[in-house]
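Work package 3, deliverable 3.1, input record:
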Amino acid sequence: MSDERRDEATAPDAYTRQMLEQGLSRRSFLGRAAGGAAAAGFLGLGAMPALAGVASEGKGAGAFAHSADGGATLSFLPKPKPIRDREIAETLTFDVVVVGAGASGVPAALSAAEHGAKVAVVQKAPFALSQGNTGSGVDLATSEKAGVEALVARLIADSNHRCNPKLIRQWAYNSGEAVRWVIDRAKQGGATVVDQGSPAQRAILKVNGYGMGYVTSFFGPKPYTTGDGIRALAKTAEKAGVKFFFQMPAVQLVQGRSGEVQGVIARGQDGKYRKFLAKKGVILATGDYQNNKAMSDYFIPDVKHLERKQLDKTGDGYAMTYWAGGVFEPIGHTKMLHDFDAGPASMCDTPFLAVDRKGRRFVNETVEMSLLNNYLKDPENAGHYAQVFDADYMTQAATWPGKQVPPEGLKNYMPDEPGPKKGVFESQVNTHRADTLEELARKLELDPATFVATVKRYNEVVASGKDSDFGKPATFLAPVAKAPFYGIHRRVRLSAICSGMLVDEHHQALDADGKPIKGLFLVGNLGGGFYGGVDYPLTVFGLSLGRCYTFGYLTGRHVARL
Amino acid sequence: MNTFTIPRSLGRSLVGLLATTILTAAPAKGPGPSKHAGRGIACAQCHGKGGKREAVPMRQCQTCHDPEALAARTAQVKPTNPHQNRHYGTQTDCTRCHHEHRASENFCLPCHTRFGFKVP
Ligand SMILES: Cc1cc2nc3c(=O)[nH]c(=O)nc-3n(C[C@H](O)[C@H](O)[C@H](O)COP(=O)(O)OP(=O)(O)OC[C@H]3O[C@@H](n4cnc5c(N)ncnc54)[C@H](O)[C@@H]3O)c2cc1C
């Protein structure tokens, strides 16, 4: 093969080239500072980059990368001093070391073990841990090839055309196999899981007119979740020889002279460090960084005032990868903010009257629940809103989006209703019924006067037959007039951040030159390139977990075979 | 309760694993009185002899309190057992709720608004 041809084969693709140019790494800053003045003119950002350059040079800390806007710095991520060998209490050697026992890590570990590797999993929490219920894949046997490609195109569009198409295709063509494998292996460990198949994906049974089929794994019903499912999968993994180390958060990577990753150092509950050497590779699967305030404020300032759903996701894998030379996706990461729990999930996109935390109407209610965070990200609203409807909702909304749950069924979501609840998180339900609007306002924690005025105005709009306030289609206008009144107090909180660090299609981390970092692989939300939009898309229900399972499955196998 | 704030967990978790390599706790003022002092427990039993007077790791509490036994003792606490939960089992870091030198807090409340524990 001639040199030229090899260049062509190994040259980064368009997505990767753009990430290398705009992403953030410890290296990229040095280059950018030099071109700072010119770039500033081009972007119209005035003197900011120059100022930032001075600040970091002044400290003699040129290693701090700067954001694409040249203003903010990653100074909250200084590379720590390497932990010395004499601080290490114990050294253990494996073929593959997986960091994080979650939706991507446990599949990666089991997959590696099934392909002959000796595997360790180091886990921060006292047990394997994840969240959610639904994880999906494409059933190739029942899908037209054109349909798969159409779905890929749809997902790329969902990500505002900012994702890495190769990774979307990889999910599309491997996820059916991977999700089925997860279902089978989790069952072996005793999980309560079913394949809901295509019926769970009603809106995408045809894409651009082409037929599609799906594998839809469902760990549930609530309060049973994928967390329980992953623990069952971990049992299967243990049987396959995987060694788990709990309450053992990884804190640093072990790197050789040329930067190759040789293992990780983790800290046990006894406060002692242990070194886990990995002959074939380290797979980081530590989840997102939503509980790391500095990292969140920097990469996804939109969620500054929004509440979190997860715990202890401090972005450890991001930091370790960055220290090893890895590249962050540019600022403006993709977020997932949902509330499927306060009331029936099937009613969350029904365009009932919606009011903000005070009781004011704020949106054309055809905007989906998964996007409403964008209207409620100020500190006062902080993701809270309420859906409001009256006694006639079953008939009025019969043909509207969603599936209306009758009044008897709504009781299951009412904290004030005595008796045990079924298929819900009892602590999260927040649906209310009242005989007056004032009483409903109090139960929904709204300002009664504001709320009553809003309803009065809404009913005027409804009577006029035209939504002159927000432009909602007339078909979705129904009065809130007849007692009893109902309200669902939802609060969208950050389920996950879906952007990560640059990887190639083997899920190997790339450095600022686009070269794979030897021995370092990233899966789950930590792996970049799969999203890119403002919000996580709900086109394929369960895409997030489906992608985590799939890339864990593929990466475990790939690293085991190295 | 101030329902407008982000859960404490967000800020607190920063003081977690990674942050310990970045931040060093710098107490501005001296601590309030020790709640354990009334039970005849000396400063050193938590802070160690000549040890730094700073945050105490959970394993130190465990030298006297067995989390499993504790969870069994509070199994009937409503609405749910603070010492046995789905996120950490029996291993929730004690000091996320119990504070030795100041008022304790309810770590679960921001996310579970009806978990109104009174934390001693
Ligand atoms: C309430 C809720 C519901 C959701 N529902 C769905 C759904 O129905 N469908 C869907 O597709 N998605 C859903 N999601 C999103 C989905 O759960 C996540 O995107 C997915 O779990 C991410 O997988 P992961 O492997 O990246 O991380 P996780 O599954 O979160 O696993 C990361 C693991 O790494 C461990 N860890 C972290 N740091 C370290 C460290 N330093 N050392 C060792 N271990 C570490 C953690 O303890 C954790 O176990 C939901 C999210 C939430 C919060």
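Chain A has three domains: 2-65, 85-335+496-560, 340-491.
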